[in-house]
Amino acid sequence: MSAAPQPSVTVRVPAKVNVQLAVGGRRPDGFHDLANVFFAVALGDEVTATPADTLRITVSGPDADQVPTDDSNLAARAARLLARHHGLRPDVHLHIAKDIPVAGGMAGGSADGAAALVACDALWGTGTPRDVLLDLAAELGSDVPFALLGGVALGHGRGEILRPLPVGGTFHWVFAVADGGLSTPAVFRECDRLRDEAGTGSDTASVPDPQADPVLLRALADGDPAALAAALTNDLQAAALSLRPALAATLRAGADGGAIGTLVSGSGPTCAFLAKDAESAVSVAEALAASGTCRSVRVTHGPVPGAAVTTAD
Ligand code: C5P
Fold first, then answer.
1. Which end of the chain has fewer surrounding CB within 10 Å, N or C?
2. pTM for the structure as a whole
3. Which of 55, 58, 12 is nearest to 312 (CA)?
4. E-strand stretches of 178-295
5. 3-state DSSP call for residue 108?
């Protein structure tokens, strides 16, 4: 007689691009106040939770060897945090099927943290209220709450205070994945350094409060790709380009290939290209692949929902 199959829960979670990333001054706690418009795209990871004797992380996918499987993995930290909240032991095997570029500025690690929260909550039957899950997510990292929420949202504070935004249609994106990642803290530090070097200062007294751009919010609500393309901004882009000058050629190749909007995704080094429609996205991707300025190219769309259970048995 064979043993009964182990129950398991699989959660799919999206990557994000920031269509606006306005960075305020460095706060006394080292973080930066942001006006951050998150946009969830169909490129995503899957996290499967299965009961186990102890907490264990495994990873599959082309970049699996770059993902830590110790406690620095946000999925492991999420399982521990949720278990502690409910007075349980975090005895779970979390398998991450990794498709989001690693250290790429698309919140892949944060996505896995959000997915692990949802997967463990379902596996353990703990029924954690949504607002509590969002608070736990914010403890894990600035981008984790958005991965729970999905869609498009405006983030304030360090990015964790979220307001969902209306969106009037589907937008088509191409992502150029770079060789190697960039460290988010290093990119924020470089942003501060560039501001100090320019003489404007980098603390909260020197940098104006970041504000969402009403023109960009209108473009999203209207589902208007040309208007959104014209409004895309990322205050971390100069810092990412300073640390990785080769990204300028990637951005140029996408623009030459027909993208209507180009920007570095979050803290980079992944570059994001907005296309006017699905067909144009394919030709932008072909041009980027032919340019030899990136490691790989992904065509996708959005917005899509946040972390959600796909299968449970
Ligand atoms: O919150 P999270 O752990 O994802 O942030 C990673 C790092 O990015 C922080 O330690 C900080 O250096 C930087 N950061 C920041 N301001 C933010 C978000 C992140 O300076 N709003």
1. N
2. 0.96
3. 12
4. 233-234, 261-264, 271-275
5. helix
Cα–Cα distance, 17 to 264 (Å, whole number)? 9
Q: Give the Å distance between the CA of 31 and the centre of ligand 1.
A: 6
Nearest CA to ligand 1 atom 13: 185
- Distance from Cα 41 to the centre of ligand 1, integer Å: 21
For the Cβ of 190 lying below 6 angstroms from any atom of ligand 1, the answer is no
Look up tokens 């969002």; give the residue. 134
Residue with the smallest CA separation from ligand 1 atom 3 is 141
Please give the single-letter amino acid code of residue 58. Answer: T
Residue-wise pLDDT tens digits, 49-60: 999 999 999 999
Measured CA to CA, the distance from residue 104 to residue 102 in angstroms comes to: 5
* Cα distance between residue 151 and residue 171, in whole Å: 12
For β-strands 92-97 and 56-60, DSSP reports them as parallel
Distance CA 154, CA 212 (A): 8
* Strand arrangement of the beta sheet that strand 261-264 belongs to: 261-264, 271-275, 171-177, 296-302
Q: What is the pLDDT of residues 302-311, one digit of tens each?
A: 999 999 999 8
